[in-house]
Specification:
Length: 145
């Protein structure tokens, strides 16, 4: 009885909106933070926390994979089909394994952006199923005067 919600009572997640659109927005922000948060001066390349963590041997790559796995966890919660989940898991594993190589892996990690890819896969699936509104308008625009 203590765990049941009365009619009109708040959900146990008071501070988090669990809708598809709100979750997707949170995951897009997380992917941006992990993959593209900082601009490297002089190079005009964006890197994120994941690439910075990759500079720490072993522990950093593992921490990056754990953070990236949260996107996969949310995709599973949203009901994404297994074949898309498998692609997302392969992106995470590929990023983690190649990122473990000392110098070349760090450069690859800064360029591959597995989290942005996974959120793009998730958005595309949710748009196709009608769970979220389209992020981009398809087609061409003509000006009417």
């Amino acid at each position: 009885m203590a765990f049941q919600n009365a009619a009109g009572a708040q959900t146990p997640y008071r501070f988090a909106d669990m809708s598809h659109e709100a979750t997707l927005l949170r995951l897009e922000k997380l992917a941006f933070l992990l993959d593209s948060a900082f601009l490297l001066p002089g190079l005009n390349r964006r890197v994120g926390i994941d690439a910075a963590l990759g500079l720490i041997p072993i522990v950093g790559d593992f921490a990056g994979m754990v953070l990236s796995s949260y996107i996969l966890f949310e995709a599973r919660r949203l009901g994404v089909p297994r074949h898309i989940q498998a692609r997302m898991a392969m992106n995470i594993a590929f990023d983690g394994l190649v990122g473990a190589v000392p110098v070349a892996g760090d450069l690859f990690d800064a360029a591959f952006k597995a989290n942005r890819r996974n959120v793009r896969l998730l958005r595309r699936h949710l748009e196709r199923t009608g769970a979220v509104r389209l992020g981009e308008i398809e087609g061409t625009a003509t000006r009417l005067d």
